[in-house]
Task: structure prediction
Amino acid sequence: MKLYTFPPAPNPRRLNTYLGEKQILLSVELVNLTRAEHKQPQILAMNPMGGLPFLELDDGTILTESLAIMEYLEELNPEPPMIGHTPVERALTRRLERICELGVLTRVARIVHNTNSPLPDVNADPAIAEQMREELPRVLRMLDQEMGGRAFLAGDRPTIADCTLFGAWEFGRMFGVEFDSGLENLHRWHQSFLQRPSATWNPDPGTTSVN
Ligand SMILES: N[C@@H](CCC(=O)N[C@@H](CS)C(=O)NCC(=O)O)C(=O)O
Result:
């Protein structure tokens, strides 16, 4: 299989982090979003939505959506479990992952793209960025409280929720989105997560890492 991706972007980054936690290696084709390479006809022919990442399976099937790709790879590589063991652990992990994507990653991305987007031809709307800046702290405070003294969002092992939050946090950091210093548990988690091999994982040593 082959992964089409651009790891500095938050959805590619969360998938890369997942691959790193699993130590999965696969063939990668870098598609530079900042040069609009995802709008090239050969990419749109595979993925008409144009978004990254997407995975091309050996039979030519194209999988888009980072979460669907993580779930697919989790079924192929169940160890170590990144979505929990038991039905309730799996539901709680998925709950946190959805909160991290919809509540954090999406808002961080909208702040960046409506102020200082690295993508060409984006119509920035500062009012949207402002609204997202107002909404973001509440969900982060909730995650910070829920995490408490745990090592990871869902407990003592990393899960797909950590991968999504890490992708969002790193993208925000890269573009000056401020995370309140009062989020002590999340800042501790982030500092510790930065030390993990998954934070800089290159799933295809044949390509230059752009993390
Ligand atoms: N829901 C998709 C979103 C994919 C997506 O929009 N990716 C962004 C990078 S984070 C992208 O490729 N943006 C390019 C564009 O919107 O033109 C996922 O979870 O993978």
